[in-house]
Amino acid sequence: MSNHLKFFIDGAWVDPAVPAVLDVIDPSTEEAYTQISVGSKADVDKAVAAAKRAFSTFSLWPVAERLALLKKVLEVYNERFEDIAQAVSQEMGAPLSFAREAQAWAGRAHMESTIAALETYEFSEKRGSTTVVKEPIGVCALITPWNWPLNQIVCKVAPAIAAGCTVVLKPSEIAPISGVVFSEVMEAAGVPKGVYNMVQGNGPDVGQVMAGHPDVDMVSFTGSTRAGIIVTKTAADTVKRVAQELGGKSANIILPDADLETAVRKGVQGCFGNSGQSCDAPTRMLVPADRHDEALGYAKSEAETFVVGDPRSEETVLGPVVSQLQFDKIQRLIEAGIKEGATLVTGGPGRPENLNRGYYIRPTIFGNVTNDMTIAREEIFGPVLSILPYKDEEEAVTIANDTVYGLAAYVQSQDIAHARKVAARMRAGSVYLNYPEWDTFAPFGGYKQSGNGREYADWGIHDFLEIKGIVGYGD
Fold it and tell me: Which pLDDT band holds residue 475 (cuts at 50, 70, 90)?
């Protein structure tokens, strides 16, 4: 029996306090394929109360028992791996291969990294006669986005449980079914009653209620900067900790000594991955001005290899973006790029020619972009790349840092020592040199309006802990 219309609270699947439903749209067809229930304050109160009751005992569990629990969750997750991938593909339009190899894989990888981190994590240290201990912060409200559903769910749930916290999760109402499957995983793994709870719903009626709830000790939020500001203001009245991973407009500096063709082609791939719906995507490519036109040629050639289409087709590389709202926003920004004088290299407004329904975007490259243009300032969240020329390295660094965001930055050079020096000047939480492999043990989070706090492995565990000094503890 489907749990789509239920919430998971206190170890059981329950109906909402007030019946209300929301269609879940398949972005490849623009049609509803299922419904979820949407919650209210009464559901949040029930879930938080369950988490608060469970915290009194779960917070005292030995690390070995928490480890065993997470390993069981990982085991069941792997058993449900294909169900998770299918859910992500349908709810957000990810091609099935990408849903398996990136989306569902990310949840597995982060669970494995959290387990590995917990196995060696030190929860206390002696400093003379003082002992410093790290204790679970309490009941945690976890609010996750639609663009990397399992990545963000596991990046919050796993370290919270590793730390000894209890949680209430609100998945995105736009891509909620993967959250249902994950909740089924948690149930099957035998997570104790109240330790993990899940309530579906929208931001104002569920997310903000969680953020402002007096019995919630911490909020971990991933989403837009606009929504993050609302969450922070709501949480401020009860002076709780807020960890946020927000928007980005990441620069990709291709230094003059880089292999230009390789750097440009990989940069296009990085920007377009997940249909451009990644907050750390390298969306501003900075190239030497005297090779700008050459870079445009490589970018055009690479962009035109991307097959846009049905997520269920093996040939598809890019599926649709997630919603009508996102589609309309991206169209508006593409039009703004044209109006403001950027060179449209390939792509442009409207759907690809072979598609007449679904939220499909034409893979788009803009050249001759200046950093004051709308497409260089706003997070587009679609397969749209802006290429900006620079005259020297100093100007490149200035342009890269001239943004309200600071989530990620990218540097390409055949001289790794040089790349490291440029990386040191980037005002961003992550800097990637020469397109490295994804490292799930590296800290992930942002400077400036890209948020605060860090996720992944031991960095994530740290955010869910309080620090207590016991002075006079003795030897």
Answer: confident
